[in-house]
Amino acid sequence: MKIGIVCYPTFGGSGVVATELGKALASNGHEIHFITYSQPARLDFFSENLYYHEVAVAQYPLFDFSPYESALASKLVDVVRFEKLDLLHVHYAIPHASVAYLAKQILASYGIHVPVVTTLHGTDITLVGKDKSFNPVVTFSINHSDGVTAVSENLREQTLESFEITQDVRVIPNFIDFSRFHNKNRSHFKRAIAPENERIIIHTSNFRKVKNTQDVIRIFHKINEVIPSKLLMVGDGPERRNTEELARQLDVSQNVRFLGKQDAIEEILSVSDLFLMPSSSESFGLAALEAMACHVPVVSSNTGGLPELNINGVSGFLSDIGDIDDMAKHAIHILEDCDRLQVFKDAAFARAKEFDLSKILPLYESYYEEVVEAAKDKL
Ligand code: GMT
């Protein structure tokens, strides 16, 4: 199949899922065309089946806001027409689903009918999409997509509750590529970070408010009172400054390292003993799945789709949002005993195996076929 993929090309989860999906589809023989405003962060290798089309937005003194949507729609029309695509798969509803709808209408005027699949990733529904200023457009473009997927059952339910949806929403969860994410022996790195063999705790995110990065510091502060430990904070974003400040106030900075954005996240996960994810909203929790694939158990909040990934008492623990004491208690329980820690590590890995790319990729492929066939019947 010839598939166009539209996504945010950043380190965010939706862009990562879109890029990894495109790479996997290309390896399976599909021709994949990424259409984005810059090269996706993880689109870092050459494959004969992968194409990248950059969306350039014209600047003009009249524009206070550059008309990205118009530029993207025009690019989609151009790529679909000249590359003869069979399907467009857009990730993150805003603005990609409505732009795809516009492109589809323009293409129809040329006698070209291309079905559109929209994947909902989380904040496009749970935070941004609910805003009155976007709601009618999000509702319309979901209802006028030829196929809609959500990354968890919880996100599907939230979509149906928050919008007047007349369309089926298929759940296809996030996935993990074990050829990249697996436990690597990095003992030299572990020794450098934890010279006294302290436990290594990790958090990775884009440091947005929903990630509750200050709670990570508060939880670590409690753990560190009982268990010799180090905390690695990976990523960057708006909350980083406040989070660093709190680490200083609580006098734990000597045991906390802010590593900034890192490409080889699997290397850092491989030396870690516990992943903290106290988010106030999380449709799936891809970062937690990446940790579990590297044998790292997860102490998380119980929000959104997290209970569908992290099995309470097995791959880690779930607590109410903001319940720092409970999260610290669970973390200490996992970390204080070597044998118990190993049991949790094995269980986290076993759970991650259920989201192996090889299991999830066929779900997308068969969904694409279903959508393309149904669209042909409608003509
Ligand atoms: O949460 C992020 O850091 C990025 C965000 C995004 O929209 O790119 O991730 C969302 O999509 C991921 C992939 O489907 C999910 O695993 C994340 O849980 C989800 N984030 C939220 O819902 C807050």
UniProtKB/TrEMBL annotation:
One of its GO terms (molecular function) is glycosyltransferase activity. Residues 11-180 form the Glycosyltransferase subfamily 4-like N-terminal domain. It comes from the Bacteria. GO terms for biological process: bacillithiol biosynthetic process. InterPro entries: Glyco_trans_1, Glyco_trans_4-like_N, Glycosyltransferase_grp1, Thiol_BshA. Residues 189-348 form the Glycosyl transferase family domain. NCBIfam families: thiol_BshA. This is N-acetyl-alpha-D-glucosaminyl L-malate synthase BshA. It comes from Sphingobacterium gobiense. The lineage of its organism: Bacteria, Pseudomonadati, Bacteroidota, Sphingobacteriia, Sphingobacteriales.
